[in-house]
Amino acid sequence: MNIGWNYKREHLDPLKRSHSIFTDGGDQPNVVPSKATIWYYFRDVTYQGIMEMYATANDIAKGASLMTGTKVNSEILGTAWPRHFNKVIAETMDANIQSIGLPTWSEADQTLAKAVQKEVSSKTTDGLATTLKGIQPPVEQPVSGGSDDIGDVSWTVPTVTLRFPSNIPGLQGHHWSNAIAMATPIAHKGVTAGAKVVASTVLDLLLKPELVKEAWTYFDEVQTKETKYTPMITMQDVPPIYLNKNIMEQYKPALKTFYYNEKKYDTYLEQLGVNYPTLKKD
Question: Fewest CB atoms within 10 A around its CB: which of 112, 151, 224, 254?
Answer without folding.
Answer: 254
